[in-house]
Amino acid sequence: MINHRDILLIVLETIEYQADKEAFVSEFEKNILLQSIYDLIKSMPESGQELIKRKLINASKNPSEVETILKDHFSEELRQQALENAAQESITQYIQAISPTLSAAKKEKLAKVLENIGSILTEVS
């Protein structure tokens, strides 16, 4: 199954990204994870948001503790859905941001690649 990491690597290859693609994707994934955590916290009642924020800040240097806190407050399904939503939104925003800088040929190539990815994702669903 194709995932957001694969999609990002395909996009970077298609636009002929010159720097370290793996480093870019790793950093992008960190941002996706942070966005998903933010979205999960925002989905809570305000009274619970402050408590979980404090817990996460205290645990910020320990990824396994952060994961435990998230598991204690959110189901696997909610965490996965938040991650998927954040990934989809982040990739869409990235493509929109770079699009004006691409040549017409690269835009066309990227559009075709994205269309193919969309078809694959639709078949899997």
Overview of the molecule:
Helix 1 (4-14) packs across helix 2 (21-42) and helix 1 (4-14) runs parallel beside helix 5. The protein has one domain (4-15, 24-124). The model has no long low-confidence stretch (mean pLDDT 92). It has helices spanning 4-14, 21-42, 46-58, 63-73, 76-98, 104-124. The protein contains six helices and no strands. By secondary structure, it is mainly alpha-helical. The radius of gyration is 17 Å and the shape is elongated.
Q: How confident overall, as mean pLDDT?
A: 92
- Spans of at least 5 consecutive residues whose pLDDT stays below 50 are none
Structural class category: mainly alpha
Instruction: Give the topology string: H per helix, E per strand.
Output: HHHHHH
Helical content band? over 70%
What does the main sheet amount to?
A: none
How many domains in all? 1
Gyration radius (Cα, Å) is: 17 Å
Strand content: under 5%
What is the count of helical runs? 6
A few lines on this structure:
This protein has 125 residues and is mostly helical.
